[in-house]
Amino acid sequence: MKRNQIVLGKVMNIPIGVDHSWFLIFILLTWMLADSAFPEKYPGMPVWQYWVTGSIASIIFFMSVLIHELGHSYFAMRYKIKVKRITLFIFGGIAEITAEPKKASQEFWIAVAGPVTSFLLALIFYLISLATESIKPVYVVFSYLAFINFILAVFNLIPGFPLDGGRVFRAIIWGYTNDFEKATKIAAMVGRFFGFTFILLGAFQIMGGNVIDGMWIAFIGWFLESAALSQLQIHELHKLLAGRTVYDAMSKSYAIVPYDMTIEELMDNQILSRGRRFFIVRMEDGSLGGMLTIHSLSDVPRHQWSITKVEQVMIPFSEIKKVEANYPLLEALKQMDKEGVNQLPVFENGELTGILSREDIITFFRTLHETVR
Ligand SMILES: [Zn+2]
Known about the structure:
Layout: E1 5-11, E2 14-19, H1 20-41, H2 47-78, E3 83-89, E4 92-97, H3 104-131, H4 136-156, H5 164-177, H6 180-207, H7 211-241, H8 246-249, E5 255-258, H9 263-274, E6 278-282, E7 288-293, H10 294-297, H11 310-313, E8 315-316, E9 323-324, H12 329-339, E10 343-348, E11 351-357, H13 358-371
The structure holds zinc ion.
Zinc ion (ZN) binds near residues 114, 156 and 164.
């Protein structure tokens, strides 16, 4: 989500971003309000007023979503958990919290803060709407905002992980059982259950002729289901990889090529015929000097392949992130994500001992998954 977003600024020292998908939902919501919802409920206003009230209601609604996320963030920061950024996207908002809470009670307060914030906003908007009943366009905006924030709070309290309610639910099970793993698993399964329920509800709506609402409900259900499923998979991955080291998963055999081999020779003899994707380069003095990936070859134009030596293209070990063989595997995977690389050279006592690639980790995970059952 990082690439497709526009940064709006900072609130409480947290960068606020808007994902491109957000514009679609903003336009859809404004259009829905101005073209049908408001005219049906409050007839008799000039058309332009519906569009102005629709746009203003949309903007304040998304500000409400942002305030909801700030509610979560406030509590996270109170517990010294850093909030990397808040992003608004098609399904609302996400506050990216950099670490899992350490205690069930912390998770409870961070999660519950969002819906509570939305309830408070609903109440404030409701009071404003009461006070402005005689000014129709203002009343229209605030009574809608009161309603939508109330819905947002209730929807988020559905006890399916990763919704707020699911986190509250997980925190409660976690608090009672003292078992974070088990709590995550139960909460994610309940999340999937609600996801499927929404998909079914949506399907019934569609069959009943209510196509747009039905599709929307089914879409939310699908989103919920897949989010819960990926949480279960991450949970499974963590469970299986916990306690494993880089050494367990790395490839111990790797191709070594001489420093003076040309790219063309490398392509013909190694990449095309043997399907290898990365190489270690042996230098003139016999030492292992660096690593070469298919990726790094893409910078060399085709016509220079016959005159470029691997030595010129390789990334020297001194410039690459490396890992120690006894390093925790999960940490290494996190590091690969952070650096955006697909493989890391593995060192032991200062000497290259293997290569760890994402494929190695996946293969290792599959083998474990099949044997540890
Ligand atoms: Zn929330």
